[in-house]
Amino acid sequence: MAASDGKIVVTIDTRGSDCLVIYPLPEWERIQRDVEALPGLKLSVQRFQRLILAHATDLELDNSGRILLPQPLRDHARLEKKLVLAGLGNKLELWSEDLWHAERERALQESIDSDDLPEELLTLKL
Fold it and tell me: What is the pTM of this model?
């Protein structure tokens, strides 16, 4: 977030997870251009654009590195006292602690139960 001079954009996760996604402003500007360039006559594209762009909120870190999230974003992610901040490369996810633990358990169970890993994961060398 240092590369963004403390300027970030927070929006909802469009994959249906009850978390918020935080982008450094330069990364968000690239994403916004890409999303706006999608063919807007398709209803599914319009819905996606509406979700990700309409919820996007520009925020700035204060001198202590804190932000004040608007109530609609806090409500969407069911944020209360205990939170989890998860780094995912070019973005961060902000979860309520309870929802994070439930998501982590679900993901662990699915990865254990699944022999059908996506092709992209089979190419990783971990």
Answer: 0.83
Specify the residue for token string 């202590």: 64
**Element (H or E) spanning 32, and its range?**
helix 25-36
Within 8 A by CB and 6+ apart from 1, the residues are 8, 24, 61
Check: CB of residue 41 under 8 Å from CB of residue 64: no
Q: What is the pLDDT of residues 10-35, one digit of tens each?
A: 999 988 789 999 999 999 999 999 99
Residue 114 token pair: 């699944």
| Residue 116, pLDDT above cutoff 90 | no
Q: What are phi and psi of 116, to 5 degrees?
A: -100, 65
Backbone torsions φ then ψ of 93, nearest 5 degrees: -110, 140
